[in-house]
Amino acid sequence: MPDSYTAPLGRLTRDTSRIITKLRQRGKLPQNAGVRSIEKSDWPEIIGLHRLLFDISNEEFALRMKTGGEGIRYCNRLSVVLEYDGNCLGTCLFLPMESDKTAWLFGAIVAPSWRRTWATVVLKHAAFNRAAKQGVEAIAFQAFNDHPDTLNHAARVLAERLP
After folding, report:
1. What is the mean pLDDT of the chain?
2. Does residue 134 surpass a pLDDT of 80?
């Protein structure tokens, strides 16, 4: 069972900025990578990534991308896709924001062959900056025991463990 955490967005972006700066100094950041809003044409690749965490049907994913309604929904204005050389390498899927200015990050999912590279930090950094522009002040997320990068990130930013 995963543990849930929350951290101020400022701490999260400072942490990812520090890592981005180091990667840039080492020449490890590609020039043609970018993060943008999710488009319907991205759905097949995102569904494939989503299935790495939790199985989901095409129909269920389409429902989650719709605004309003019952059940789990993803927030279109916060959720993003990481693109590199025309390929979808990852996605950050957020749940709709609550009134307390905290956004739930459902998952930051990167293709297995791109994990432990620049891709995850670039994806998270851009998603956090986008969230800040939308008025988000804190990010809540879950960390599974078999995801040490997420657990380490939580520790670095002194994330508060939720009950």
Report:
1. 92
2. yes
